[in-house]
Each structure stands twice: as C-alpha cells, then as structure tokens.
Design goal:
- This protein has three helices and seven strands; from the N terminus they run E-E-E-E-H-E-H-E-E-H.
- It is of the alpha+beta class.
- The protein has a single domain, classed as Gcn5-related N-acetyltransferase (GNAT) (Aminopeptidase).
- Strand 4, helix 1 and strand 5 form a beta-alpha-beta unit.
- It starts with 18 loop residues before the first strand and ends in an 11-residue tail after the last helix.
- Its EC number is 2.3.1.-.
- Pfam families: Acetyltransf_8.
Amino acid sequence: MTTSLDLPPPPEPALGSEWTLTSLADAGPGSRAYAAAPRGGGPVAELRLYRVQHHPLRACYPYGAHDIGLGLILPDRSETGQELVPRLLGGLVPALFAADPLCRRVVAAPAEDDTATQTALANGGFHRVTEADLPGGSVVLFTAEPAWLADLPTALDDMPH
C-alpha cells in the first residue's frame, strides 16, 4: 500500500498530438520538469510538477496527498507565446487529473509581481485564491479542480442533516 509519505512524483501527463513535452534533467527530487512546445514549434513554457506535500505550499491550504503543484516558467513572452500558454494549460490540467484520478487540485503559486504568469494561469482555467508568504517571497495561489470536485455544493442548506 502506498502512503502519502512515499507517493511517487506526479505522473507524466499525456497531452496528445498538439504538444511536445521534453523531459528536463534538473527536475529535482520528487518532481518532474518539462519543456512544453506546440508540435513543430519552439518552447512556450517550462513546467515543473511536484507533490504539494513536498513543497512549502503545503502550509497554504489543506492539501490532499495527491495534489500536484505546478511551476510555470514562460520563456516565450511574445504575443504568440501568451496565446499558446492558456491552450497548453487547458490540455495539461485535464491530463494531470486523468493521470492521477486521486488528485483533487493542481496548484500554482507565481511570485506576487509575476503578472504575466498570473494572467496565463487565469486564462488557462486556474482560479486565483489568495496571497501567501513563502520562504522565497510572496506568491499568489491559483488552483484548478476537476469538475466532480468543483461542482460539489458548499452551501450549508445543501449539506445532509
């Protein structure tokens, strides 16, 4: 039986034929890193995937053992790159939920002053949640949830009594 302490790194997402993911060697322990590019094009973003429980983000919200953290680096800040990243995220998030059905959230935490990444996340279907202070500086917490979780009612009147 796998416990929350010995979970493997997040699985590699299957993005289909539109995107190419190239593994990067410097992912670090317990994480995966990729250069993401449209098929036939140059890199649009660098993705770092890790389990939230192994990152300082774990102090920011009541995380699940299978929650996946996303680090997003935008090397291509051109207009074309800014248009492609939301499409990439629109395919990435469902692929991560399909690859790990126990994942409740994909969480990203760009620096507070990184408005380009914040805009890309918002345009890619992530929801801005709050600001947090981490050891490396202030960040803005963004999340994406699978439909089965996002559609659960939270109003007290909807709860069973």
